[in-house]
Give the backbone structure.
Amino acid sequence: IFLYIFLKSEIIWSGNKRDYYLFYYIISFILIGFSSVTFLINKEINQILLISFFTILASFYSVEIYLNLKTISKKNPYLDNKIKIFEANNTVDYDKRTKFQIYKDLKTKDKNISVALYPRNFLHKKNDNIFFLSGIKNSETIVCNENGYYSVDKSDRYGFNNLDHLWDKEEIDILIIGDSYAYGECVNRKDNFASKLSKYGENISVINLGYGRNGPLIEYATFKEFAPKNYKKLIWFYFEGNDLNDLSKELSNKILHKYLTDDNFTQNLKFKSDLTEKELKNRLKEFEKEEIIAIENIKKIDFLKLVKLFKVRRLFIKDKTKAPLDYLEKILKKTQLLKEQDSDLFLVYIPSTKRYFSNLSYSNENYKNVIEISKKLNIKLIDLNEYLLDNKNNIGQYYPFGGPEGHFSEYGYDSLSKFIIDR
């Protein structure tokens, strides 16, 4: 167990999650100590200790088996409720297909169809000489379904969620970077932040470099690789729900880390679109194979996770890895230095839904820290929490089917875009 923990902590995660694995180090040393003690005590006490130990272990595995069986037989009452609401208010049925099913269906009509291939999924790919920061270019891309329909839009020449002709403009009014909220999951392009900012800014031009599941380091790398030459305003969307956790994972990737340590480093991805398209299409084939296996195993228990007490550990042990605030500050500072000299940098703070839908009092210990970083660096802050708190009595309208799951609803993206433009 000690050797396995050392492998995970020091080699796979390069020491970046040592705080998280500290608990497991302690457990492994306790077990080593327990093993040693059994050689020094008499047989009767030894038997009592071993029986006690294996009884406790058997109890943990009983709970683990129960939780696994519960998961594979579980129905989703929240989904059932969404279907009822949607079909009561629309003339079409709620799309109950999985992402893989709609992919197969659309592929029979259009070979140039893809699903969103998230850069984060490639963080731990071995022997990769390139790290992809976008999806397949010029492709109808299936993203997700939170509003009763799957969002599908054609990607631009670099694989982002834009109308392609925007890249031909000599100057862009607003450049967006961020994760799934910046991208506009799970609504169609006409309803996302980029389109609404363009509309309420009276047809200003907006290029969107956001992509789902990105953290701050991937976002900085994307900005460095793909930012157009001239833009007036740079908007960085920061999500409190997982951005710092994502950053801690991204730091373990050797290619991404070079963006932090070498100011001259670049992969020149803008000029490798043919190579990235070929490789990403290979990744799409991997997605198809993985989905087929997942469908076959959907009602099966993952034996390896069961052995590692995956679900039991999640009940009791939370990831308390120290938030990499110093790296976030470093990334934002580098962004300031790299941005167009005459452009303004805005940080749009997106709060977690837990703030409004949790029965328990919610607090994010890094909320003030991130705001302090923006003040320290003189970055203009637009805090969406202010707006949503002012409208807390009607908070459900800003999220799909009244919350608490999902990104913003069409109404949410629309209203918050007005707030951002005003600010």
